[in-house]
Recover the amino acids of this structure.
């Protein structure tokens, strides 16, 4: 079960507008379209209000009972608003997204345990069926930490 993923966002060629951006995560279907009907998150939040000069944010995605079977994968899309172009409409703008890692092992813990608060990745292998502590942070998870860049 995927419980939490923390992302670093960096804007290139644009900035945030003054205010608080809204973030939404959607699952990407096999045909490449977004599944707009399934609720897959409990919350998606950045660090708060932005200035017109801000180009970065840290976004915490708290999933709602999102299970990814062993050996399989899922693709998600992060959507957000409150950005403005910096320069001309013809220049290269991009958004860079990096999954943050955890430095040391935490777990096994019960879901919602204080030790898991503030961890960048929280997941459960469901081996204890929620009774003895299934949840770990992302330490030593084989993940791609290369920033994924979406350019116009």
């Amino acid at each position: 079960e995927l419980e939490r993923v923390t992302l670093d966002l960096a804007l290139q060629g644009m900035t945030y507008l003054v205010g608080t951006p809204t973030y939404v995560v959607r699952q990407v279907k096999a045909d490449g379209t977004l599944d707009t009907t399934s609720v897959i998150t409990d919350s998606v939040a950045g660090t708060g209000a932005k200035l017109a000069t801000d180009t970065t944010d840290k976004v915490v995605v708290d999933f709602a009972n999102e299970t990814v079977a062993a050996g399989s994968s899922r693709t998600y899309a992060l959507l957000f608003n409150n950005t403005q172009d910096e320069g001309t409409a013809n220049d290269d703008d991009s958004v860079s997204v990096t999954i943050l890692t955890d430095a040391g092992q935490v777990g096994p813990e019960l879901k919602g345990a204080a030790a898991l608060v503030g961890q960048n990745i929280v997941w459960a292998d469901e081996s204890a069926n929620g009774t003895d502590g299934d949840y770990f942070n992302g330490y030593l998870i084989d993940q791609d930490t290369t920033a994924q860049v979406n350019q116009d």
Observations:
- The chain is about 0% helix and 40% strand.
- The mean pLDDT is 87.
- The first strand starts at residue 2 and ends at 12.
- The CA atoms of residues 110 and 132 lie 7 Å apart.
